[in-house]
Amino acid sequence: MKTRKIESDVDFIGGEGPLTVAEEKAISDYFAKRKAVTKKASETKKQLIARAERSNKDYLAGKVKTQEQLEKESENW
User: Fold this and answer.
1) Is 9 among the domain residues?
2) CB 23 within 8 A of CB 31
3) Where is pLDDT greater, at 56 or 19?
4) Going by fewer Cβ within 10 Å, which terminus of the chain is more open, N or C?
5) Position 48 in a domain
6) Region for 66 from its dihedrals, namely left if φ exceeds 0, alpha if ψ lies in -120 to 50, beta otherwise
């Protein structure tokens, strides 16, 4: 049995006809914004990993502070 693929003209905005220029721009802007947010989250994750690695190196090198030192330091903030 041979099947055919049928293309349907579906409008996801809810209108009867094709998308207007404004609708196309709105959709494009929406996806561009989503992509930027995803990229930003990825960069934030990389920064967090780098910070954790730096902290581990400091700890292993003995660069640590006691709770009392931290409390005294935070009084000046």
Assistant:
1) no
2) no
3) 56
4) N
5) yes
6) beta
